[in-house]
Every structure is written in structure tokens, then in C-alpha cells.
Amino acid sequence: MKKDAYLNNISQAVPAHDIHQKYVDLAPSRLKDDRGRAIFKRMAERCQIDHRYSCISPYQKGGWLNIDRFYGTNGFPDTEHRMKLYQQHAFSLAKKALDGLRLEEMKDQITHLIVTTCTGFYAPGIDIEIINHYKLNPAVERTIIGFMGCYAGMSALKLARHFVRSDHGARVVILNLELCTLHLQETDSIEQMLSFLIFADGCSASLVSADPIGIELQSFYSALMPESEGQITWAIGGSGFDMHLSGKVPTTIAAGLPRALPTILAGGHTDHFRHWAIHPGGRSILDAVREGAGIHEDTLSASREVLRHFGNMSSVSIMFVLKKIMQQGSGRGCGMAFGPGLTVESMLFQQAA
Known about the structure:
Shape: globular
Oligomer: single chain
CATH class of the largest domain: Alpha Beta
Strand content: 15-25%
Helix content: 25-40%
CATH topology of the largest domain: Peroxisomal Thiolase, Chain A, domain 1
């Protein structure tokens, strides 16, 4: 008999440096004309983000973004230097989240470790560092989910559910870690500058098991929006990872959701769901989900709050939203996250009383 799987607990962490206002102040200087600068200022005021955190320390007296001149006036770093900084900062942020989960206290019980990241890679990787630092059983089953973008957090939950349902004793730790601010590109494109306006660094650590505590992970469904392959792309370039986020994405989501929603909700009606855990990919993404799914604005409060206080942390963000939903009381819920494809990864869940 297969057993239900539950998201028992979530711990969250961000770096110490709030860089949002620094970027808002300095980015217009990279644009060539007054029209572009005016558009950027207007969109910055409307983006509904107050804070974004980075592993890069801001330079307070001027300059571009950081005290180490990682992003300097004489050129931006290549991919090798960006990966070195990722390796330098990744584990310290992961440790902050894992300590919050109290991994040390349950280290002997952990059977699986899943790591999601699309912003940096090295090997032996962060999974090995976690096992060595916390003295986990070396036989812990390790899985790395890489380069899936913002919906990877949902993919990790799906995989963890499979582990628990096939092995009643499984206790799965999921680490979502993204250092998105390492991939700012040297550009004068208004579209690219606006996409950099929302991304941030962050980390979450969570536990999934058969213990009936927290959020029951009931079912998952994946949908591809038609004719949308080029709207979200993520490629490794010579100067970091190149993200393309088309302005058509919100329109595609709003138009495609009505067709996908009956299957996503397993035949249910939106009124049957109290909780909506929507990946806060940006203000316009949340607006598009509200329009396409026909849900009330107040159901997006958790997602709006995460966007305002942390920005878009790629695969990490959905876990921050679920953490807030855990504090909102019992009820049925639907989660969605979006990424390259254009893919909609969805989940139905039940928040325990």
C-alpha cells in the first residue's frame, strides 16, 4: 500500500546584501537614451519589489554594483569567474538554510538528498559538501536537478513524493539554491535590463516524509504552452548564463491557462481551493495567472509578499510561498511554477489542520 507524502517543514535563507535599490539607481546609466531611462524608471516603480538579496556586496560610494568590482566599469567577468564565486558562496548559504531545518538533529534519519540549482555548477558539488559537513550517511541517495529554471522546485517536490510513496521510511531533504545575481550581463538592452530587475539570490531547505505533518503532496501535472519554446531560454555563454525572458510570457500564460486548468485542478473548480501557491516570477506573471485562472486577487497574497520582499529567486521562490501558506491554516491548494518550454508545473496539495 502506497503511503501519502507530506512537506513537513521549510527553512529559508537569503544573503546579507540587499541590492535592489542599488540596481534601480545605477541601471539607467547603462541605457543610451532618455526614453529607455524613463521606461526603466517607470517599470521599476511598478515592479512591486522592495528588496532583493545578493551574495555580491554592494559598493556604497558609487561605481557599478559591488565593492570587489565584480561588475565594474572595465568589463564584466567571464563564466569561469562567475562559477568560482558561485562555489565560494553556495555552501555558506545552503548551511544557513539547512541549520534552520535542524539537519544536524536528524542527520541519521535522512535517506535522500535532492538539490536544485540552475545558476552554478561544480563537482564534487554542494551535495557532497552537505554530506561531509553534516556527517550524513554516505549511502544517502543524491539527485541534482539542474538548469530547469523556476519550476525546478516543483520538480523536486514531485520527485520527493515518488521516493516517499515507494519507500515508507524515506526522509527526503530538498535544497533549492540559486545565485541569480551572478549572471548580470553587460548590456544596453532595455528588455534585458528589465529582466535583471526582478532576479535575486536565495535558498530553501525542506523535509518531505510520510509523517502527516504540514502539506500533503497530492498530485502533480505538467503542461506545455503551445508555440512558446523561445519565450524563456537559459543558455551557458562566455560571460555567464544568458537568460532571455520575452515580454510575451504573461500573455501566453493568461491565454493558455484556461485550457490547461481543468486538468491541473483534476476537474475541480477554482472556488474549491483556498490556497494558491504561484511562483512569483514577476508582477505581470502573477497578474496573468489571476486573469487566466480567474482567481481572486487576495488568493495571491503569499506570492505577492514573497515577490515584494525577495524578488524572483528562480527555483527557490515557490518554497518561500509554500512556507507562508503553511502559516495560513488548513485548506486545499494549487501550486504553479513556470519555466523554459514554456512549461507550467503544477501541484495539488492539502494543508493539514
